[in-house]
Amino acid sequence: MKSYITKSPNSNPYALTNPRAAVPVVSNRRLVFCSQPCRRTAEFAYLLTFSISSWWISAIKRLFDKSDGQFLEDESTKIFARKVAEHYSARTNQTLEEREASPIIHLKKLNNWIKSVLVQLYTRRGDAVLDLACGKGGDLIKWDKAKIGYYVGIDIAEGSIEDCRTRYNGDADHHQRRKKFSFPARLICGDCFEVRLDKVLADDAPFDICSCQFAMHYSWSTEARARRALANVSALLRPGGTFIGTMPDANVIIKKLRGAEELEFGNNVYWIRFDEEFSEKKFKSSQPFGIKYKFHLEKILFVGHQVTDFTLYSLFLWQDAVDCPEWIVPFHVFKSLAEEYDLELVFVKNSHEFVREYMKKPEYVELMRRLGALGDGNQDHSTLSPEEWEVAYLYLAFVLRKRGQPDRTQSNARRDKGQMYIGKEDIMNISEE
C-alpha cells in the first residue's frame, strides 16, 4: 500500500449542471493540476488519480500479474470461492468521511439507487425475503423501508456475515447506524452456489422475494454451480415469487474487450483483464461457463489532514475496492438455464437503460436526489463522473418470476422462526453435502 501526501486544492472544477434532468448529467471534466484549488476531499481524490504517472500504474498491474500467477492459475473452483470469501471478509467498514472521500462514491450511490428501485417495484408489505450473497447487510435498510415480514441472509464470507449481524442488531458504529429493524431475521454463513438450500431452509420457505445483488456471476465458474444457484432460487420461491438481481453485462464486457488493442481495458478507476487463453477474443457457444477475467476497481482512502507552514495537506492511501476473479455470464444462457428451473424472464436492462427509464418517474428522481448519486447542483458538490458512468455500463439488472399461480393466503409462522436480535451463536454455518 503506497502513501501519498499532496496539497489540498479548494475549488470545485465540476458540478451537476442540470440537477433536474431525466438522465444523469455528467459535466465535462478537465485535468486540473494540484496547485489549483478544490474544496471536497472526494473531488481531490479523483484529481489525484490523474497525477499518478503511467509507470506507477504499470507497476501496480505487474504486481497483480505476479499475484495472479501465484494464487489463481490451475486452482479449483472451491479455492476461487474461498478467495472471494476471504476478499470480502477482509474489507473493513468505512467511516462516513472515508466513504464520502472515495472517487467512486457516486457509483456506489447509483448502484444503491438501482437496488432500491428494484426493491420498491417488486416488494410488498409482509414479504419474506431471501438475500443470496447478502454481504455486510448493506440492503437491510431498503428491506426495512419496504416493510417486509421476514428476512434470511446468506453469504460465504464469515467477516461479512458478522458485520451484517452487528448492523442488524444496531451494534455497528458506522454511518448507517440506526434504530432497530422491524422484521425478524436469520443469518447463514455458507456458499449458496454450492449447498442445497431447500433442506437448510425447509422451515423458512417459501419466500416471496429472492435477491442476489452483484454476485450471481460468481456462480458461473462451472455449470454445476450455476445450476445449483438457480435450483436454490426456484426451490425456495413460492409460485409467482420474484427473483431480482444485478450482475455484469456480458455483452458490454465482450464488446469492450474486442475493441481493445490487448486483453485489458478500463479507465482511471477500473480495469478488466482476460487471460492469454482468450487472446483471440472468441468464445465458444458450447462453453458458456468458466470464462474468467480479473476485475479491479480503485478506492482511494482518505486518512486525514495535516497543517504545516500554514499549508493544508491531505493524506491518501491507495487501496483496492474490488480485486477478484469474476466470470462472464452470457445472458441468453442464463435465461435459458433459468427456464429449466421454472424461472421466467420479466425484464433485463443494462444499468444505463435502467436509469434512463426510471428517471422519467418523479418518485425515483426524488429517490436519486435523496441518495445523492448525482450530487446537488445548487451547492459546491461533485456529481457522477464519466468514469463512474462507464463502470455502471458494465452491469445490468434483471427480474425473473417463478411459474405458477401466486398463493399468498397460507399462514406462515416464520416470524416465530427468526429473531429480533441475532447472537454469534445464532448464525448457522453450512457446508457442501
From TrEMBL:
Instruction: List, alphabetically, the Pfam families matched.
Output: mRNA_G-N7_MeTrfase
Q: Where is the MRNA cap 0 methyltransferase domain?
A: 102-403
Instruction: Please indicate which superkingdom the organism of origin belongs to.
Output: Eukaryota
Q: Which GO terms describe its cellular component?
A: nucleus
List, alphabetically, the SUPFAM superfamilies matched: S-adenosyl-L-methionine-dependent methyltransferases
The keyword Nucleotide-binding belongs to this UniProt entry's keyword annotation? no
EC number of this enzyme: 2.1.1.56
Spell out the reaction equation it catalyses. Answer: a 5'-end (5'-triphosphoguanosine)-ribonucleoside in mRNA + S-adenosyl-L-methionine = a 5'-end (N(7)-methyl 5'-triphosphoguanosine)-ribonucleoside in mRNA + S-adenosyl-L-homocysteine
Q: Name one GO molecular function term.
A: RNA binding
Q: Which UniProt keywords apply?
A: Methyltransferase, mRNA capping, mRNA processing, RNA-binding, S-adenosyl-L-methionine, Transferase
Write down the PANTHER family for this protein, in alphabetical order: MRNA CAP GUANINE-N7 METHYLTRANSFERASE (PTHR12189:SF2), MRNA GUANINE-7- METHYLTRANSFERASE (PTHR12189)
Recorded protein name is: mRNA (guanine-N(7))-methyltransferase
> What phylogenetic lineage does the species belong to?
Eukaryota, Viridiplantae, Streptophyta, Embryophyta, Tracheophyta
